[in-house]
Each structure stands twice: as C-alpha cells, then as structure tokens.
C-alpha cells in the first residue's frame, strides 16, 4: 500500500479571537420562507406551479412585488474602494462590512439584503453591472465607494432605475447628523438659521451633510477639505466641490480649518485628522462639536467638553453616537412600505425629523441628543415618516 501524502496542518492565527470567531463562516445566511414537505408542495413551489406565477409576472411586471422577494430585499453593493477608515482594500476584504450591513438591515428594519462586492472600479462598468442586476432587487444600497466616483454612480443609477437607490455613506450620515443637530440646538437654545457651521471633509459624508443642512435652514455654512475652505476662487476643485462652494461660504471665508472655526457654533468632522484644542477654544460660546471620525475622533471628547456645550462622536463608547444604523434600516423599510420609486430629499428630511422627535423636551440634555440604535422606536418611527413623505412627494406606488 502506498502511503498517502498528509496535508500540512495550517494554523489559524486568529482562532480564539472573539471578534474573528463572531465572523467565522460569515454573519448572514439565506433561509427559506416556506417549507417543502411533500410532492404537492414541491409542485407549487417549483415546476409546474411556478410557471403560472412566471407567466403572470411576464404579463404584468408589477406583480413581482407581491409574488417574489423584491418587495423586501436590498442589494448592498460596493467596490471596496473606501471601506470604513481602511480606504481602498478591495472587494473581497470589504465583505465583512457588507455582511454586517446586511445583518443590520435585517435586525433593525426587518429588511432582507444581499452583500455584493464588485471587482470593478470603472464608473461605466459599475453602473451597468448594478443596473443589469436590478430586476432581482427592490432597492440598491451603495456602500464604501470612493468620492467623487460615488456621486456620479448614485446619480446615474437613480436616473436609470425605478427603485430606491441610496448611498448610505452620504445620506445615512447626513440624516443622523441633522437629527442630532436639531436636538443640540434645543439644548443650547440656538436657532438653525442663525448658527455658523463648519464641516471638515468634502467627501461623500461631508457633501451630503452640507446639502441636507442647507435644506434644513442653515444659512452660514463652510466646508473645508485638506487644502482649506471651499470657495469659488479655488482652481483645484472638482465639479462636486465647486458646486458646493457656490452654495456655501456666504461669509467669504478662506484659509485653513483653524481659521474657519473662529467664532463657529458647530463643528462637524467627517474627514479624520486632529483638530488642535486652541482652534476649538476659539469657537462661539455654547458650541457643538460632532467629531465623527472612527476610531479616533478629530477632537477627543475629553478635550471637546472643555469648550463645547454638546459633544457627539461616531463611537459607541461615548454619549451621543452618530450612527448610520439609526437611519438606513428605517428609510428602506418606509420606502418599501410605500412602494416608493425613489428616495427623495423630503423623505430624508422626514427621517431626520422623526429621529429628533423621539427624544422629548423633558428628556433632552447635553449627553442625550440622539436615540440609541437599540431603542426599539427608531426604525418604526423613521419608516412611518419616510412612507408618509413618499406619498406627499408623489413617489409612492402603494
């Protein structure tokens, strides 16, 4: 007898690590919504009975919402070019995040989703690939795609498809920031039309935060990128930044972030880096600091509290966590409930208002301006407001 070669034992350096153990085998699975127990059930679930359903949908495509999973399933799509704070790590390495997103959709909104990591960074190819997959899904959640490509991808898919397309890095962040700011203003007794806001970061989140704050009534807002304050005279701005420069910075500011913060009421950090304490010390009395970079906020809360009345971060181990999970499950739940063809600006504003309204005036305090992701009221409140806004905006098909 010839001895068979023995495969070498490959040790797993991460075995026993509780984080890795949680991810072992992935965090999601597909399960059946019905059980096939006999030939009669099989003939209805598959051939020949399924042919009747297929024929009906071919004659009336709207029936797919009722007789397939489309009415409650989102494609979570990425190319892995801007994953968390890790950057361009590629599609395969992005999968744990995409699985996590799908898990949160289900846990917090009752929405099914499929993580899809595309080995494709060309905008044309990305749009074409997603558009070709769209018949299988009721909505598209774009995730972790680098700017400025993400803006073009979202715009083109929204124009092409008749289902909700939502780039969460932009709009989920913006919705929760606006909700938290509305309550921070109540705590500090300031008016949204009279404050001056400085946003550090002109990528996906920074642009979307600026846009939703302008819609909500902020009149004095400046956006700062790595080279300074956005203004029309800068020759190095891409089209997205140039458009934003034209709509912001009514005070004509120039210079760096530290200059823009002088006298500002609100700092919103969505870019990383570190803001020196002497800069935030120059902000207006009763200022608000939202330092949202992860894992290291632009201003550590201990330092921020020396100068600001309200402090928020993106971390769960400090009060006032600005977390996208407060928004996207409820937004898609509401869009699906209304059978919305798209997600409008009105639906995003409604989501923010619903989030802010979860905390009563009696409950508001500097360390409690936004609800916890584990508050069971969050997703239903957001979903209801979004569905109603969809009807008001004329995009509901329910």
Could you explain the architecture of this structure?
There is one protein chain. Helix content is 41%, strand content 12%. The protein is α/β, with parallel strands linked by helices and 398 residues long. The protein folds into two domains: 42-163, Rossmann fold (3-Layer(aba) Sandwich); 170-398, NAD(P)-binding Rossmann-like Domain (Rossmann fold, 3-Layer(aba) Sandwich). The strands form two sheets. It has a six-stranded mixed beta sheet with strand order 7-6-5-8-9-10, with helices on one face. A four-stranded parallel beta sheet has the order 2-1-3-4. Helix 5 crosses helix 14 and helix 6 (123-133) runs parallel beside helix 7.
Globally, the shape reads: globular
- Portion of residues in beta strands equals 5-15%
Structural class: alpha/beta
Radius of gyration: 23 Å
User: Would you tell me which CATH topology of the largest domain applies?
Assistant: Rossmann fold
Overall strand count:
10
Distance between the termini: 71 Å
Q: Average the pLDDT over all residues and give the rounded result.
A: 94
**How many helices does DSSP assign?**
16
Q: What does the largest sheet look like?
A: 6 strands, mixed
> CATH homologous superfamily name of the largest domain?
NAD(P)-binding Rossmann-like Domain
Q: What's the level 1 CATH class of the largest domain?
A: Alpha Beta
Keywords: Metal-binding, Oxidoreductase
Protein name: NADP-dependent malic enzyme
InterPro entries: Aminoacid_DH-like_N_sf, Malate_Decarboxylase, Malic_N_dom, Malic_N_dom_sf, Malic_NAD-bd, Malic_NAD-bd_bact_type, Malic_OxRdtase, NAD(P)-bd_dom_sf
GO molecular function, one term: NAD binding
